[in-house]
User: Which sequence fits this backbone?
């Protein structure tokens, strides 16, 4: 398994940065990409239909995503969303015709006047994990629909074909003490170990199937 860990927090001293580092400690072969270290314009100044002229750092990021079989995104929750720099990263990198495309509708639907297309994720074959922090406690996130997790896990990664995406939440950060944070960091490292074991097991299961095919 080749894992790419995307750290979406602007601050290298943040809890998210520490969680990303501890995940890598549990999965030592993982590649760590900190979005804050990249040089790029996070704004889609020409919209979704503008030219796909990527800065060198974003070209490299795409290559690292394509080389990975497992993507881990680490981000805080800010205003029921994510930091602007991470949103800009997704806007620029996970673009149409690279991360997804729309295929023509079946002729029968077209004849009925139905418009649009059928989306296809072009990053299929990869799995994902989301480590997401928030000041909002977990129980309140569940009452309000946990919007940020759904956007990243389902509407960005999942829409691009990355499935399944497992979500781990670290809620109530503002009220957490040192012991709680230490437990979270240990959990992130354990998840790194778990992902290695899970994907190693899946790879082993596929070998006999290939031999018998």
Assistant:
């Amino acid at each position: 398994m080749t894992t790419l860990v995307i750290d979406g927090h602007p601050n290298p001293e943040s809890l998210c940065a520490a969680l990303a580092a501890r995940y890598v400690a549990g999965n030592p072969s993982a590649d760590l990409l900190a979005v804050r270290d990249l040089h790029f314009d996070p704004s889609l100044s020409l919209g979704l239909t503008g030219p796909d002229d990527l800065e060198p750092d974003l070209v490299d990021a795409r290559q690292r995503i394509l080389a990975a079989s497992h993507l881990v995104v680490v981000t805080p929750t800010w205003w029921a969303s994510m930091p602007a720099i991470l949103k800009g990263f997704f806007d620029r990198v996970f673009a149409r015709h690279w991360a997804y495309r729309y295929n023509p509708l079946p002729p029968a639907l077209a004849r009925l006047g139905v418009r649009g297309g059928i989306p296809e994720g072009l990053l299929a074959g990869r799995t994902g994990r989301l480590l997401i922090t928030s000041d909002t406690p977990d129980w309140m996130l569940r009452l309000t629909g946990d919007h940020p997790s759904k956007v990243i896990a389902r509407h960005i990664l999942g829409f691009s074909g990355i499935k399944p995406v497992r979500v781990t939440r670290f809620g109530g950060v503002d009220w957490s003490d040192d012991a709680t944070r230490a437990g979270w960091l240990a959990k992130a490292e354990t998840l790194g170990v778990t992902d290695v074991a899970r994907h190693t097991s899946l790879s082993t299961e596929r070998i006999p199937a290939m031999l018998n095919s």
Summary: Confidence is low (pLDDT under 50) at residues 206-213.
